[in-house]
Automatic annotation (TrEMBL):
Organism lineage: Bacteria, Bacillati, Actinomycetota, Actinomycetes, Kitasatosporales
Superkingdom of this protein's organism: Bacteria
Residue ranges occupied by any Response regulatory domain in the UniProt entry: 4-122
Keyword Transcription regulation part of the UniProt annotation: yes
Alphabetized CDD domains for the sequence: LuxR_C_like, REC_NarL-like
Annotated Gene3D superfamilies: 3.40.50.2300
Keywords: DNA-binding, Phosphoprotein, Transcription, Transcription regulation
HTH luxR-type domain span: 151-216
Record carries keyword DNA-binding: yes
Pfam families reported in the protein's UniProt record: GerE (PF00196), Response_reg (PF00072)
Modified residues (4-aspartylphosphate): 55
PROSITE patterns tied to this protein: HTH_LUXR_1, HTH_LUXR_2, RESPONSE_REGULATORY
Protein name per the record: Response regulator transcription factor
């Protein structure tokens, strides 16, 4: 079955461009479009898409609040949200990730990256682009705790190796890169990541990265 995609952007030309790219793929189907967050909520309820391609800055309701309602505990369907951001990295992307987005993508990303990102998110994985994840969090460090706050009790449930893995996830490393850094197999890394998510009650790697910064485990600018 094709992955059902809802396009949400207040610029019709951008939606048209995205539609042309996605409809060229046999496993993707654009089921609808919306020009703002309120329309997006209506379309999600009516169309039950698998993935919502979500702009941030829109009239009436922005992408952050729409994401929060689409992915919240009382959501109407299983839709995942993939946030679109500008080249300069929109200041609201961190808030969108906190709100439940499964990842983010630059608006000027190549067509093949857009297609792959949708497939990754639809499969239940997080779309964390290693090249920009850490730069994003560091850039908006003022939105995050200073690292001087008490460490959450939940962090103490992790083993030392799981803490190591969480730090590397937060810095935008892929499973392969983490495996190379820790001299273990990718399968072992996947197992550790799974344990981290389960113990901390997190949905995916995106939430894990944000948690690591918010808890002070990883501090913006640290190597």
């Amino acid at each position: 079955m094709a992955i059902r995609v809802l396009l949400v952007d207040d610029q019709p030309l951008l939606r048209t461009g995205f539609r042309m790219i996605l409809e060229a793929e046999q496993d993707l189907a654009v089921v609808g479009e919306a020009g703002d967050g309120l329309q997006a909520l209506d379309q999600v309820r009516a169309l039950q898409p698998d993935v919502v391609l979500m702009d941030i800055r829109m009239p009436r309701m922005d992408g952050v609040e729409a994401t929060r309602q689409i992915t919240g505990p009382e959501r109407d369907g299983p839709a995942k949200v993939l946030v679109l951001t500008t080249f300069d990295l929109d200041e609201y992307v961190v808030e969108a990730l906190r709100a439940g987005a499964s990842g983010f993508l630059l608006k000027d990303a190549p067509a093949n990256e857009l297609v792959q990102a949708i497939r990754v998110v639809a499969a239940g994985e997080a779309m964390l682009a290693p090249s920009i994840t850490r730069r994003l969090l560091d850039k908006y460090a003022t939105h995050l705790p200073s690292g001087e706050e008490p460490v959450p009790d939940t962090l103490h449930t992790l083993t030392d190796r799981e803490v190591e893995v969480l730090k590397l996830v937060a810095r935008g490393l892929s499973n392969a890169e983490i495996a190379a850094d820790l001299f273990v197999s990718e399968t072992t890394v996947k197992t550790h990541v799974g344990h981290v998510l389960t113990k901390l009650g997190l949905r995916d790697r995106v939430q894990a990265a944000v948690y690591a910064y918010e808890s002070g485990l990883v501090r913006p600018g640290a190597q």
